[in-house]
Amino acid sequence: MLEDTNLNESNDELEENGSKAKRVPYHFGEKLRKVRERKGYTLKIVATRAGVSESLVSQIERNRVSPAIDTLLALADVLDINLEYLFEEYRRERPVQVIRAGERRTIAEDDVNYEELAKPAESDGQNAVESYVITIPAGSHTHRGSYGHLGRELGVIVQGKAQLHYENLVFDLNKGDSISFSASSPHTLINTGDEPLKAFWVVTPPQRFVQ
Known about the structure:
By secondary structure, the chain is α+β, with helices and mostly antiparallel strands. The protein is 27% helix and 26% strand. The protein has seven helices and nine strands; from the N terminus they run αααααααβββββββββ. The strands form two sheets. The protein has a six-stranded antiparallel β-sheet with strand order 1-2-3-9-4-7, with no helix packed on it. It has a three-stranded antiparallel β-sheet with strand order 6-5-8, with no helix packed on it. It starts with 5 loop residues before the first helix and ends in a 7-residue tail after the last strand.
């Protein structure tokens, strides 16, 4: 069994003395209590099997303290709870990702620049996407896609003129045009204009900005 930490015991004492509770960012308590009651376990049974105090289990169930990760894992093990179930609420409450203009990651491949707009989310699994702005100098072109890869791509020309070479096909693209395709075949985006080409691009699964 996992031993509870002194910090948790201190939280017990703070609560019992009526002091200010530690801020609890994620509410696991209701789920833990419902599963415990459904299984017919008392607080004492759960606390004993998890190796923590009965008082601490009670505080956690009431969302009065945030459990240490060891404690949470021990309780989940005793109650046979899937961790995905415990963290469902956390994922639902944070569906929005913001990347500030000055905080975007960039990758350069020769003279082509990629500026990240959305970070791939590992939790999205096969639905993960990445998006970025591609900047290609006049007369240059992308490189990696010329070999092809798994997934799909979608692009929108934001500035300049371009050609997309896809297998033995050629597509002329102007500002505002969009294009989508299976990325499994060789493909190259070429700047055919006299100014830098800028294009908004979406790729799934992620290829460049993978953690």
